[in-house]
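To close the chapter, one final illustration. This time we ask the reader to focus less on the individual chains and more on the assembly as a whole: which components sit near each other, and how the overall shape emerges from the parts.
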Amino acid sequence: GNSVTQMEGPVTLSEEAFLTINCTYTATGYPSLFWYVQYPGEGLQLLLKATKADDKGSNKGFEATYRKETTSFHLEKGSVQVSDSAVYFCALRENTGNQFYFGTGTSLTVIP
Amino acid sequence: DVKVTQSSRYLVKRTGEKVFLECVQDMDHENMFWYRQDPGLGLRLIYFSYDVKMKEKGDIPEGYSVSREKKERFSLILESASTNQTSMYLCASSLSGQNYEQYFGPGTRLTVT
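The assembled structure is written out below.
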């Protein structure tokens, strides 16, 4: 079946620190992969995506590379800001249907 | 920009009441979804719809039903609300096709007392 596993939180970092949030997946085919961000009191919004192996998605200084060999899609940012404090969700969309599968989310707090 | 709107941001209902949560999208998306979000559990799919009048059960459909009479509107119905349905409810929509992402509404925080 399809599933997504992401690192447990919460994660607390100082401003300008390096961020990695790990995400691995299980899929029966070749899914598309996504990172979503949820700011307090809001719905989820797309942060970045990658639709095939070795693709790199990037946005707002965040990036993630679709690694088929390790079934991973880790989120990274070189220097986090207080405004990056949010919950981050890794997700996949199967290639044979319309369903999405989400990880449980990782809460990030960035302190000044 | 795609916009997904939900009828209420906050809702308080009593046990046993029938509750309607409405979701509307303005970008002609075929697929629409209802999730509930609870701390530590992430997003859990309740129902989704891939066309008008079509619906598929998700992971936790018990106690819920849905209606999709028009392409842009997807309603979630709690036939008889219970306290364990207190949660954040998120609606989403997407185009068909593997490469397309979901767009989410702002969520409805439902409290059942």
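Chain B has a mean pLDDT of 94. The radius of gyration of chain B is 13 Å. With these observations in hand, you are ready for the problems at the end of the chapter.
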